[in-house]
Amino acid sequence: MTPRVAVVAPYYKESPEVLRACRDSVLQQSLPCTLFAVADGFPSEVFDNAGPLIRHVRLPLPNGDNGNTPRGVGSLLALADGFDFVAYLDADNWFHPTHIETLVELHERTQAMVMCSKRTFHGLDGTLLAVAESAEELHKHVDTSCYLLHRSCSDAMLIWAQMPKELSPACDRIFYQKIIYERYSMAFSDLRTCAFRSQYADHYTDAGLDAPPRSKNGRDVFENAIRYLLTERGASEAVRVLGFYPKPSSLLVG
Questions:
Q1: Nearest residue to 85 via CA among 109, 57, 114
Q2: What does the pLDDT look like over 105-132, one tens digit per residue?
Q3: For the chain, what are the domain ranges?
């Protein structure tokens, strides 16, 4: 029996061209899956009337949490509808054609609950960047768009919408720590089946290129989240809503 796979893609104000690349990469997967496109306050017609494999969810207002609330909503809808697996895809990224199929096959071989791929890195125009991240290579970090989770991991999926907004810039690192904390079994394909459109300056400089204007510095992105976790309020709130205390030092893994 073919497993039912949901791909949850939160989106905000990305261009129609970028959204179409995201959409089409899901529709063109070698193993069919259903796209839950969740608008974070700014719905796009790109996802309207696009066929039975797309469910367009429109949230009325932006949530300002790096897509966490849309991810949580999409996850809950997929679980309620009985999907076997949930994957995530940030709207500025895209999947290579065998992404879902190879991760489902990895589950069938290993019976792991969490399956992970690696990434190809790309400039804002889609150009391939010849770079990699050491933490990803060592399986110490997994980008949000590289996960496929079995529905038995629902406790982890639901923390997206519960995560304090102060932690949202580091959401993928918090999510990874949740998986480790809950001791969900993990398997790594080591295949680069997810395409990551980078906004981080380091990826361009490592590739010998000039970084685009307004590029992000990875460490700067996480500073506020670290400061928050080091406060009494932040620590207690994180434990209350996440069920564990994320280690501030782990946010700098990369």
A1: 114
A2: 999 999 999 999 999 999 999 999 999 9
A3: 5-247
Using only the alpha carbons of the chain, give its radius of gyration.
Answer: 17
Q: Which amino acid is at 1?
A: M
Copy the structure tokens of residue 59. Answer: 């949230």
Which burial class, exposed, middle or buried, applies to 214 when counting CB atoms under 10 A from its CB (0-12, 13-18, 19+)?
Answer: exposed
Superfamily holding 5-247 = Spore Coat Polysaccharide Biosynthesis Protein SpsA; Chain A (3.90.550.10)
Q: Where are the alpha helices (DSSP H) in 45-184?
A: 68-80, 99-110, 134-137, 154-157, 159-162, 171-182
Phi-psi region of 139 (alpha: psi -120 to 50; beta: other; left: phi over 0): left
What is residue 200's DSSP assignment? B
SS3 64: coil
Averages of pLDDT over runs of 10 residues in the chain (254 residues) are: 95 97 98 98 93 95 96 98 98 98 98 98 96 95 97 95 94 95 97 96 93 82 90 96 91 68
